[in-house]
């Protein structure tokens, strides 16, 4: 079964063709990073206008790269939640138009569930597992029992992890978007140069939650306070120390969740899943603690149409389609937080 996936929830116009939910035939990601760079952040109005200009070419290229025509596609999957409303509307309207013109069914899917699904495209992963979703808009740890049955254990109580990377980079004028830049700088920095705070584990229902607001403020405002003697106050050292603090916080909670639930498989997703310190820490954990860790390849970490096609396949295969009346929703919905 061939599914065309379309993603326009933020600043990437992307489309992909995936076979049977796990074989990637093509992926096209047109990023608007250069367009938003002067503003050091995504400007929603510009993002949606750019999607309008790009979406047709992106979808056409994904079909031709896969060597298929629209006629050979069995269904269309598209992100309709959560994200920037204006951006989501472009992809959703385009998918509805394609569906109407071709007679192929379409399914509107959840961006968060799709990020969590992305590692399934290149790996054979069995449920249940613990998911770590870390992106520019979301940070969560969840028990995943099925492609749409997830139980959120913890979230950020303020900034998302990627957002903290972006804000720290913006403050130090390191460039945009900050995640990749901080990751690269950290490679030549010493992560013990500064010791930044980790808000201690919360109790009760909030014990898997994280907070980035305090860390961000500490990095931005209180460098001298945390400056350890003998270390240079370089961008590389600051980047490496911040990165370590931001990622260690997540690892600590993941380990706790694994211990509490007895689940030994961990799956990551989202833009920050590309972070080299996170990937390195998780692979040493798998050796050390006997955990199985699956991370998407770099091209599948950030926003992409492949994860949408992959997740959409599971609905389409069961004959679950969206009506033309379906619309966009900027917010997360339906993620329960009742565990244990
Ligand atoms: O998943 P994504 O493409 O978009 C959202 O759904 O938010 O994630 C984008 C986020 C940005 O905050 C970006 O700075 C961060 O992912 N990011 C990284 C890395 N690559 C991208 N953060 C840390 N290290 C990276 N290598
Ligand atoms: Zn995303």
Low-confidence segments, ≥5 residues, pLDDT <50?
A: none
- The arrangement of helices and strands along the chain is EEEHHEHEHEEEHHHHHEHEH
Strand order of the largest sheet: 3-2-1-4-5
Number of strands: 10
Mean pLDDT: 92
Structural class label: alpha/beta
Can you summarize this structure?
By secondary structure, the chain is an alpha/beta fold. It has eleven helices and ten strands.
Question: Would you kindly provide a written description of the structure presented here, covering whatever features stand out?
Answer:
This protein has 340 residues and is an alpha/beta fold. It has two domains: 2-116 and 301-316, ATPase, nucleotide binding domain (Nucleotidyltransferase, domain 5); 126-295, Nucleotidyltransferase, domain 5 (2-Layer Sandwich), CATH 3.30.420. It is 41% helix and 19% strand. It has helices at residues 33-36, 44-66, 85-102, 111-117, 161-171, 178-186, 213-221, 223-226, 235-261, 276-289, 305-317, and strands at residues 2-7, 12-19, 23-31, 75-81, 106-110, 129-134, 139-146, 149-155, 265-269, 292-294. The strands form two sheets. The protein has a five-stranded mixed sheet, with helices on both faces. It has a five-stranded mixed sheet with strand order 8-7-6-9-10, sandwiched between helices. Strand 4, helix 3 (85-102) and strand 5 form a beta-alpha-beta unit. Helix 4 (111-117) packs across helix 11 (305-317), helix 5 (161-171) runs parallel beside helix 7 and helix 6 packs across helix 9. The two termini are 37 Å apart. The mean pLDDT is 92. Residues 10, 135-137, 162-163, 165-166, 177-180, 183, 270-272, 274-275, 302-303 line the site of 5'-O-[(R)-(carboxyoxy)(hydroxy)phosphoryl]adenosine. The site of zinc ion has 5 residues, from helix 4.
């Amino acid at each position: 079964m061939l599914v065309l996936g379309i993603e326009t929830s933020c600043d990437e116009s992307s489309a992909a063709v995936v076979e049977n939910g796990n074989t990637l035939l093509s992926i096209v990601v047109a990023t608007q990073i250069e367009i938003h760079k002067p503003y050091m952040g995504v400007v929603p109005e510009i993002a949606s206008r750019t999607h309008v200009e790009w979406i047709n070419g992106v979808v056409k290229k994904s079909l031709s790269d896969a060597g298929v025509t629209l006629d050979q596609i069995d269904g269309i999957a598209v992100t309709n939640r959560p994200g920037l409303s204006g951006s989501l509307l472009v992809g959703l309207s385009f998918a509805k138009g394609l569906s109407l013109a071709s007679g192929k069914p379409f399914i509107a899917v959840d961006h968060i569930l799709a990020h969590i699904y992305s590692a399934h495209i290149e790996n054979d992963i069995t449920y249940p597992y613990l998911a770590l979703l870390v992106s520019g808009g979301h940070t969560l740890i969840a028990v995943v029992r099925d492609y749409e049955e997830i139980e959120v254990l913890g979230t950020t109580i303020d900034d998302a992890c990627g957002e903290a990377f972006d804000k720290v980079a913006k403050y130090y004028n390191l460039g945009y978007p900050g995640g990749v830049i901080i990751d690269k700088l950290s490679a030549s920095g010493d992560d013990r140069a500064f010791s930044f705070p980790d808000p201690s584990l919360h109790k009760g229902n909030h014990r898997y939650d994280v907070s980035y607001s305090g860390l961000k403020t500490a990095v931005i405002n209180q460098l001298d306070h945390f400056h350890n003697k003998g270390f240079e106050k370089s961008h590389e050292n600051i980047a490496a120390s911040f990165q370590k603090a931001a990622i260690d916080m997540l690892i600590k909670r993941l380990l706790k969740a694994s211990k509490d639930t007895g689940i030994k498989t961990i799956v990551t997703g989202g833009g920050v899943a590309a972070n080299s310190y996170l990937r390195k820490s998780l692979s040493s954990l798998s050796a050390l603690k006997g955990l199985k860790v699956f991370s998407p390849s770099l091209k599948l970490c950030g926003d992409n149409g492949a994860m949408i096609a992959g997740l959409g396949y599971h609905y389409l295969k069961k004959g679950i389609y969206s009506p033309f009346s379906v619309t966009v929703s900027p917010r997360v919905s339906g993620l329960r937080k009742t565990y244990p």
